Amino acid sequence: MPASHCERLRAPAESSGQPTVRTISLADVETNEVRRVVKAWRHWCGFSSLPPSDRLMPRDLGPALGHVSVARVRGEDYEFMIIGEVHVRAYGHSFQGRMLSEVLARTPRFGRQLKASYDFVRNTRRPLGFRGMISHDVPGTQFNGFETVYLPFGTQSAGVDHILNAAVYA
């Protein structure tokens, strides 16, 4: 994220001391890395609103791959299949190969927010985006500002089976 964007993101939270997060549309994405992932997802969609998970081609993401995580839907839970290095640096650890329920047990507030985002995307079969500032509710986080999108994969008949998350942290 360019320094000027990072400074703009920090100003509201430092002045108010409160987290400020808002939803954004895919058209509102500002960061190059997240924009690149959205462009690839739209390409994988083709004429459908939901690309099948076999179209997920990490090589199409180029340098944005480090900003990506992929979770597989496991009933009411989610298994983290891929966790990019940018996510690992931002949170201080990787949950690759683990379940979202483990995140929920470790950091309940953050886990509930993450599960709500995944559930929304799974249930609506629509992308979801956020931008804003957070407080340090998650121990070990190395960021305040972020821009993130959750992108569904699956089929109209069977539903969402994977969710790709792309994020930039400041």
Give your account of this protein's structure:
With 170 residues, the protein is an alpha+beta fold. It has helices at residues 3-16, 32-45, 85-91, 100-106, 108-124, and strands at 20-24, 68-74, 77-83, 128-133, 145-155, 159-169. Strands 1-4-5-6-2-3 form a six-stranded antiparallel beta sheet. It is globular and about 35 Å long. The relative contact order is 0.23.
Number of domains: 1
Main structural class: alpha+beta
The gross shape turns out to be globular
Major sheet details = 6 strands, antiparallel
Q: What's the CATH H-level homologous superfamily?
A: PAS domain
For the residues shown, what is the average pLDDT? 86
Low-confidence stretches: 1-15
- The CATH class turns out to be Alpha Beta
What's the total number of strands?
6
Give me the CATH architecture, please.
2-Layer Sandwich
| Cα-to-Cα separation, first versus last residue | 7 Å
Strand content: 25-35%
The largest beta-sheet arranges its strands as 1-4-5-6-2-3
Radius of gyration: 15 Å
- Can you write the helix and strand succession as a string? HEHEEHHHEEE
